[in-house]
Amino acid sequence: MSHTLTVQWTIEPQSAPRPWLVCSRCGGHRPFVCSGKTRLNANGRRLDAWLIYRCAVCEDTWNRSIFERRNVASVAPDALAALQSNDPVWVRQAAFDIEGLRQCTDRIEDLADSNVERHVLGGSAGCARLEIVLVVRQASSLRVDRLLSAELALSRARLSKLETKGRLTLLPESRKALQRPIRDGSRIVLDLTAEDDRAEIARRARGGP
Known about the structure:
By secondary structure, the protein is α+β, with helices and mostly antiparallel strands.
């Protein structure tokens, strides 16, 4: 019998990351929420495109540039159609473009309201070692410790202690692994041998009754 419970977590974030920007109406830095709407402006054969955000406090708008002064012939037909129709799939992909957002602000807030689909790959609930394989379909800045805290009901202080004791590792290994964003293909390994509530932790990891 395997001594390791291996579970795959497929993570689908529900809310797009929120850039923090100076709101002209509020007069300070505020989180902005993607409205799901786009805006196109044509000047002859040139196009400008924006994704519209709203301040989470006062709903003042911010237009995030998708492209500027682009020749209409150089815009892919499917992208142009998506912009014209506010296609929700295309808008969602653009809203989750973390690298694009980082060109606009240094602070991006990633909400922890992710849907986590669990699938047991091997082992049983009685195992003392837990391995979680992450499948991250959408780029995210959600930190590993925030994900584990939300899904395993463990405080971040406890997770930090487990890491310090060498009982929690992230593969591939990196410094301050718990504080890093979740990545597709990462593996989180927990040694639960000394944990009195290991059965409950394993239950939460695999889901179900």
